[in-house]
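Handoff note, outgoing to incoming analyst
You'll be picking up this chain. Sequence as last confirmed:
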Amino acid sequence: MMTILDATTSPAKDPIQALLDGPDDAVLTVIAGVEGPSYRPVGAMMSVLGPRERAGTLSSGCVESDIALHAMDAREKGQPTVVRYGQGSPFMDIQLPCGGGLDIALLPKPDRTVLAQVAENRQARTPCTLAIDLITGAMSLEDQGQTGRNGDMLRVHLEPDIRFLVFGKGPEASTFAALVQSAGYPNLLLSPDAETLADGRASGCPTQHLTRQLFPEDLAVDDRTAVVLFFHDHDWEPPLLAGALKTNAFYIGAQGSQRARDARLATLTAMGVAEPDLERLVGPVGLIPSARDAGTLAVSVLAEVLARAMTPKMTSQ
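Most recent structure output, in case you need it:
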């Protein structure tokens, strides 16, 4: 039995991109079935790049090392297989604290051409469905579909990541951008203030200098995009919000009190923004009322955005 020592694990790294960047004999592992509670859903992936390196995660750390062992065995045999953990598993020494059961598909040398198409779709923020034959390991892409398993065929529907466009000035804007950056979400911090932009860059955030009180025409906004404003100078807000409300962003919100919100709505109404569009505007933002420090506000707003992203309208899996 091979043992894995000092394994290098990158849970936040995209497993498909890691596999494409990794060795030719890497193994893609996918949750093919869930029984009862589970930390991760059907379709979650982890790439095993070698006996000591993997990207992604399939549990809270309970089974990853053992999966890597089985993945190396599947790589050696060159044959896809499905391994069971938890309820109904032959591996009685490996317990899942959640009490559920997991079926993990091990796919040695997966089709890199198809996976490269998945990566291209992600880069273009285009949803797609990855179809996997669990017996042969054959893969194909479908335009439509839902995540689930039908016999020996597993389909994984892949949506673009939630993306954040963060507008503002001061610590509230830079702190929120830093939070979503650290959580691994695509983001862009836009500000007229050099210090705010510098703080964002120091946290690794991409930035853009705002020179006019207008929503930039070159911003790509889709229905997996959240637009959040953090301004104390509320003069910047109406033109930015009016532009954002012309997009199909699923969340558009602005920092401020209820009084600030009322004034904002009055100005947008005077600008000719229609009532149905005004109803899309969130404010005051955040799940915690009257958050009075940048850190608490950032966590509060992120939680609110993600809660909205998980509603049935936004969830395709």
